[in-house]
Write a structure and sequence with these properties.
Order of helices and strands: HHHHHHHHHHHHHHHH
Structural class: mainly alpha
Organism: Robertmurraya mangrovi
InterPro entries: MFS, MFS_dom, MFS_trans_sf
Shape: globular
Protein name: MFS transporter
Subcellular location: Cell membrane
CATH superfamily: MFS general substrate transporter like domains
Membrane topology: Multi-pass membrane protein
Strand content: under 5%
Number of strands: 0
CATH architecture: Up-down Bundle
Length: 420
């Protein structure tokens, strides 16, 4: 393994930022799995309840994130992240004591609200702490944190539930956010000269003009625009079945403890994928090709899981765990190139607004997907939803690849003087 992937960690500011992200991501994954287990296994609710949780998690990113991002670009990023984590701790306490689904959804929404501020501030801080030449490695490390916590979070969560009770992971989530705050407190002051200039100028500018700058930048930057569209459609497909995956897991024979292994396998595959992409960075020359190719192969795996849950293909659990690992491996082929395009195609002073606008576009597609997935599941069953999602995933990848090939062929013809 080339040491290049870890070069950004030599910078003290990025090292502190990365440490904070690791423990923040750990808390988020403890949270996500625990909420599903509470709703399905503890309260005995159905797919509609899971869909409502997923929808409420994403709602703040659409309703609040894009508007608040203007202030994220104006204000010190370190302060925003620390305050966001402090409020997260308060809202996790609320989740712990939630007596029913409705109260739980309230605190899920509040926690999502501060998360929609934390993430664009973190994205901006990456640009402020590493030089341009280390952006691929920094983005890969950031995604590596998310993917690694997909393994550690569910695994720890399952162990904690077995040893200390169903809500115990929420206590450890609070501890994780506290450690993340400590890392940020140790973070050296980062240079935000452009931020102070922007803040002074913004007093003379209209709020809405600043807000629209993020959307206009996306619209005018073709590579960024295309990557966001692909990512948004891919996320819609994922969230079409994501809330149903726990029910698919039940059909495949996984219980509340072993289901954590299935989720962890996806995370392990993502980690291995991130490490491979960190070693081989030629993908940055053709990120869209890489994203669409990964989509085609992922679709085949999703169909296989759906067919398996119908009982047509019967395999031991470890085979499905291997399949989940491969699915995670391919997921890195979509998420990491997208993260690099977002960072490399956006000016530092607009990072908060652009990343938040991009997240809002993606989240909007994610919000409607769980409800549609739940409705389809009631009509035809969760297994057929998985198969349907796999078919769409393949079609997405093939359409993008065909579009690229057609455009390339047209360009070549024009260059040879055979057209126009």
């Amino acid at each position: 393994m080339k040491p290049g992937i870890f070069k950004p960690l030599k910078t003290r500011s990025y090292r502190s930022l990365f440490g904070a992200q690791v423990f923040s991501d750990l808390g988020n994954w403890l949270d996500f799995l625990t909420l599903q287990i509470i709703v399905v296994y503890h309260w005995g609710l159905d797919a509609s309840a899971i869909a409502s949780v997923i929808i409420v998690i994403g709602l703040p990113w659409v309703l609040i994130g894009p508007f608040a991002s203007v202030f994220v670009d104006r204000l010190p990023k370190k302060t925003i992240m620390i305050l966001s984590l402090l409020f997260k701790i308060i809202f996790v306490v609320g989740l712990y004591y939630s007596p029913n689904l409705y109260v739980l959804l309230l605190f899920v929404f509040l926690k999502g609200t501060v998360s929609s501020l934390f993430d664009p501030a973190r994205q901006s801080a990456i640009r402020l702490t590493v030089p341009e030449k280390l952006l691929p490695e920094a983005v890969t490390l950031s995604q590596l944190s998310v993917n690694t916590m997909k393994i550690i979070g569910p695994a720890l969560g399952g162990g904690m539930i077995a040893l200390f009770g169903i809500k115990s992971p929420l206590v450890f989530e609070i501890i994780g956010f506290t450690i993340a705050i400590i890392f940020l407190l140790m973070m050296p002051k980062i240079d935000e000269e452009w931020g102070r200039t922007s803040q002074n100028n913004s007093k003379k500018r209209e709020f809405w003009k600043e807000l629209l700058e993020g959307l206009n930048h996306i619209k005018q930057t073709k590579l960024l625009y295309l990557s966001i569209i692909i990512s948004s459609i891919a996320l819609f497909i994922i969230f079409l079945y994501d809330g149903l995956l726990i029910f698919v897991g039940q059909k495949l024979g996984f219980n509340e403890t072993s289901y954590g292994l299935l989720v962890s396998s996806v995370g392990l595959g993502s980690v291995v994928g991130a490490l491979l992409l960190g070693q081989w960075t030629n993908w940055k020359n053709k990120p869209i090709h890489f994203m669409s190719s990964s989509s085609v192969i992922s679709g085949l795996l999703i169909i296989s899981i759906g067919v398996g849950s119908l009982g047509i293909m019967i395999f031991p659990k470890f085979i499905w765990i291997i399949g989940a690992f491969c699915l995670g491996l391919l997921a890195s082929g979509e998420s990491i190139p997208y993260g690099y395009v977002l960072q490399s195609e956006t000016p530092k002073e607009m990072m908060g607004r652009v990343s938040s606008a991009a997240m809002a576009i993606q989240t909007f597609s994610m919000l409607i997907a769980p409800a549609i997935g739940a409705l389809i599941a009631k009509a035809i069953g969760v297994s057929l939803v998985m198969i349907f999602a796999g078919v769409i995933t393949i079609c997405l990848g093939l359409m993008v690849l065909l579009f690229i090939l057609k455009k390339h062929a047209t360009t070549s013809l024009k260059a040879k003087g055979l057209e126009g």
